[in-house]
Model the fold of this input.
Amino acid sequence: MRMNRRAFLQQSGAGLGLAALHALLQQEAAARPAGGTLPDRNAAPHFAPRAKRVVVLWQGGAPSHVDLFDPKPGLEALRGSDVPSSIRDRARLSTMTSGQGRYPVLPAIRPFRRYGASGLELSSLLPHTGAIADQLCLVRSLHTEAVNHAPGVTLWMTGSQIPGRPSFGAWTVYGLGSLSSDLPAFVVMTSSDVDKTCGQLFYDHYWGSGFLPSKHQGVRLRAEGEPVLYLADPPGITRELKRGALDDLAALNARHLAEFGDPEIDTRIAQYELAFRMQASVPELLDLAGEPQSVLDLYGPDVQRQGSFARHCLLARRLLERGVRFVQLMHAGWDQHQNLATQLEVQCRDTDQPSAALVQDLAQRGLLEDTLVLWGGEFGRTPFVQGDVNRRDAHGRDHLGSCFSMWMAGGGVRAGHVHGASDDFAYHPVQDPVHVHDLQATLLHLLGFDHTRLTYRHQGRDFRLTDVHGAVVKGIVA
Done:
């Protein structure tokens, strides 16, 4: 039989490739931690990590640091007077207020209180968060270039305002691997306030893998209906029949992998196997019947409502203790341009208790020490009012990227600590400013990575989460 050069190389290489693949899989099986998978061969922690897992409690729409985290009692005396142009002119505003004729000061709509032995000042709208004050590291000097939601979230999640790069979760799994063979290494859940007041969408690239192998992307558990589409087998398909079909499919994919070396074929093999195991692990994960009433009460009454932020917080704890490396909860409802006076309290009521409960629950189970918890949104809100302040349902605050706040707990951060400070209007950092890239570098440091060395070559360039910026903020690290 005549054979051209390409066919000869493909066929002869396939036999050698299958042998090499078999040997490689045996080596990985011997080195793999029990029940988990190794990090990518090109990545591994550079030093001992303080945190082994991450949970991001993302508050989509940007919570108002002016009202919740950064007390400025001096603003009360300035109520109704304009924020000076010398303050405003040094920061970008969105087009919604950049052309306003006036910029009247609006102080915090609720009083602040001191909490815990640390005396951390937080809004009285956050009493449950106040109860864990001594476990928090609150950063009041964050800043970003972004002034619109999608670019702001994309910058925080991927290191660029332009979609297409790997997300923070994908980078983490790329570097650390998985701790579980029955659940994805990276899981995402999204929720919103019941009234759907916030129109911001959660795009897939917020948990995407970008140009990393797609096995590192987040797996979204849906809030309504089936948590994972097509998880159940159709009628007449038994587990034994499914197992046999997967074995045959894996053999075909292994031959293609040996022949072409495409990493996406490797991903396909792994994801088929994971999906098979998830058919048993996901229903068990979602069944809260075994949770003590005391735990359910800790997360609040909304924990029983499917798709609620409270329920997702409890599921986050269950995911983390089952070996999921990175959990990302995304909750919408904080974009309060016209409804600050009515909606801020609702948002706090829905998220305050579950957020604090998750920290407390992790601590009680000995998981907080090596679990990094982060709470916050894409930017802050202006200290001046947007809309008609005399109408309760027609005023709020615009976006502000030049200064905002986030809090962290566990995973090697300084507890009971406030890092950085803003000016008298909460408009600009004046002490220890922290850029988004700096925070990304610090979080990777806590996970055991030098952010400049956790890279992936794509289109001739070594990319990283922090782009070409960022420095570890040592004051945040315990």
